[in-house]
Design brief:
This protein is mainly α and about 110 residues long. About 50% of the residues lie in helices and about 10% in strands. The protein has a 3-stranded parallel beta sheet. The protein is globular and about 30 Å long.
Amino acid sequence: MIAMALRDAGMEVIYLGLRRTPEEIVQAALEEDVDCIGVSLLSGAHNVLYPEIASLMKKKGLADKPLIGGGIIPEEDMARLRKKGVAKFFTPGAKTEDIVRFIEGAVGKK
């Protein structure tokens, strides 16, 4: 649903599907020369996976690209994860236009 909304807003979206490793996500981002990485997690592993993705992004020269997150994540975890490199979270009920607006502001219109 989010991918379709972003496409409808004129963005190119590369959807990798479910259950991708941090390595697969960052490698795809490198190969596709993305402007932003968005990851939605419902597994409860957000405290492990988001920092790992952010760390790999740094190592691979993608630290200047925003990492945005989604899923059911407690507010106190979001605060910690923002300090570790997640630019913004969109939890259930977030408006797609807010996501579009954030991405446009973070990467500019291309």
